[in-house]
Protein 1
Amino acid sequence: MRRPDLCSSTPTQVLGSLRTTTPACTLNVPSEANYTEQLPAGLGARLQEAGVSIPPWRGRPTSTLEKKRKPHLMEEDEPSGALLKPLVFRVDETTPPVVQSVLLERGWNKFDEQEQNAEDWNLYWRTSSFRMTEHINVKPWQQLNHHPGTTKLTRKDCLAKHLKHMRRMYGTSLYQFIPLTFVMPNDYTKFVAEYFQERQMLGTKRSYWICKPAELSRGRGILIFSDFKDFIVDDMYIVQKYISNPLLIGRYKCDLRIYVCVTGFKPLTIYVYQEGLVRFATEKFDLSNLQNDYAHLTNSSINKSGASYEKIKEVIGHGCKWTLSRFFSYLRSWDVDDLLLWKKIHCMVILTILAIAPSVPSAANCFELFGFDILIDDSLKPWLLEVNCSPALTLDCSTDVLKRKLVHDIIDLIYLNGPRNEGRETSNATHRNANIDAAKSDRGGLDAHDCLPYESLSFTSRMYNKDDSVVEKAVSVHPKAAPASQLEGEMSGQEDFHLSTKEMAQSKPKIRSRHTPHKTLMPYASLFQSHSCKTKTSPRVLSDHGKAPDPQAGNFVLVFPFNEATLGASRNGLNVKRIIQELQKLMNKQHS
Ligand code: ADP
């Protein structure tokens, strides 16, 4: 008799095979039988006799699920003790402290390589990417927080190349959200030609460019210039058109940090977080001084060390960050169509990820959190500046506390959909379904279309129904961290919020469009879900093409696939052309 394969079996499978096929006498007793200690009386001893160590429980651990043990999670005669094993997370010295603290708060245990078997962990979260061998060896109960191949998006030169390719394939009108970019040294002559051509066209007017190291982050090594003689050519740099008409708030430049979680590339599944950060420069925008990083760069790593960081600044208050919801509410107060802007951002996220999705390697049980940096210009056009892997999760100021909830919601999200096993779909199907059922039950037995039984703060969400018309439905978000909101209140300084008359002229966005009636914290639960909240049918089963991913987990909202056609086009290989057609339709509707 063979010993059951603990690596590829769930505890149920292990126990099942034990009961039916495995004579105890033929198995070795492993030294680590520690998990059996918590099993019902007698069972631990029997397992030890049989020589089985049980890997930690790898079911879905949402906060409530972790506390309440759901009887339906257990297979008929599975010993309940097996479910009481805490989940185990693995970290290294680069793991953000907030991740560890959130997981401990959720009742997880920290992996201890001295004490535990090498494979006895459920989630490995670190800043750097994983080696391909680590991906290949991942076990069905394990998750890694990076997907292989995503540097194609997160290196500035690669991003530029991929988006350029997409522009060639699918047209400039769709892919015009990245500023004109030249990758050095290859594009040097093209850049020089463009520079002088533009100079000629502009006459006495100046043009502005920004040079950024392809691989660095946090504003390091950046140079902004107008005069060619200030341009220093360097390898591994990109030169990009400098957006010289940014949307200013209180005359300060800002950009948006949007959190995006891809829970799988095959099939492609993209969630956008409905809260985020707005990062401000801390000195007033001034094109006559391009050397002042505090006026031109919005990186908080730079601005938090500036002399003006602590000062109360016009409109933005003190510090250098707002939440995204505060930003949208500011836009609404100026009668701006923030919903349209948000829709454009969703499209931009999908179009960007589509640029690499067909070429990333298949990998099981991993996800990727991206930080999209987006600058809005004064005509409210969003520009993609860069995509970050491992976006900063440090808590520098009270606004940053949203990152705690972000981490909670990521955990909910990855376990709501169940561990993903691209290419190993069948073997773990049972386990995944159990997770989904558990998740469903954990949300009070509601299907996703019942829209979020979370408490607190109601807002109006807009969802697209089958014919893409907007329907409105009251749903709730749960910014459950009370201390966060308190701090946020202190930080936000509502008295700073209104513009002075002088301010108005300079700060008001140029385009003012349709008024959006909602005056609430987060504007939308979903912009794209074609499976409307109206019907009582489960939105997960959309068609014969396959099962739709869950539409929402916490503040994460599914943006791709966004209708039946895109669901179909993302199964059995990614049909990018078809998806682009659907996006085009959607965007045409947005503009009409
Ligand atoms: P890093 O990875 O170093 O943060 P980014 O591309 O995000 O590099 O640029 C840093 C900052 O520089 C941005 O947050 C933004 O404020 C500014 N910036 C970058 N590119 C542009 C651009 N094309 N136009 C205007 N501002 C830009």
Protein 2
Amino acid sequence: MSIHTDKIAKKVTLTTIAKMKGVEPITMVTAYDALFAKLFDGNVDMILVGDSLNMSFLGKEDTLSATMNQMIYHTQAVCNGATLPLIVLDMPFGSYTNREDAVRNATRAYQETNAQAVKIEGGKERANIVKALTDNSIAVLGHIGLMPQFLRSDGGYKIRGKDKTDIDSLIEDARALESAGAFAIVVEGVKSEAGKAITDAVNIPTIGIGAGIDTDGQVLVWSDMFGFFEDFKPKFVKQYSKGAEIIRENLDRYTTEVKEKKFPSKEFTY
Ligand code: KIV
């Protein structure tokens, strides 16, 4: 087993990410606050301040009610904690329904945080929005496949790329985003054949989540991958630790020690 111990020493830029396609897998995790961003600093290429925070951080059922103000607040916190990864602010549902709103809201993201890019969900139908943003010097990470912001209109979370017609349609989405100037694309919840076909079809990096091994990088939601979020676990989530269990066990030790008047002992007393 090999353990990857290399720390990232330099600020990751859009150029760094572009150069990694086909050369070195890109690592991305989500973060919502400075504490965790600091832990991830120097250990991942990219941090996404995902609107998934609406579920894992705020306890809501889906991502749809996240607001621009929330995304800015959490991105500011992440930027305070991490300096090296490329930081992306996820544009919330309703903040980019037309070009004017998209440019206004993404400009806020740039002016009020140090994020280097924004992410928007949608394929060919959103290419005009991506173009409006990139024309205004705002870097865009696309997001295709299973798109959580389409939950209600799609009637649930649906795995994509199950047949050739759908794979072709996803490839068209990816190419449209590339032509509109997106610097990379998140590909979520697709069959691994689709993940590979999309990756092979574009010259910009693809970052998979539930898209198999052949994408140019991988992203996971931190609270899923470290076992803190327990409401449900999608098949693609590998839990690298049992966060919730660790917290519960140690909280139990603390409460027992307080109840039994064992904490604070002399060592922790002035
Ligand atoms: O909001 C989020 O965390 C995301 C990832 C699942 C890619 O969009």
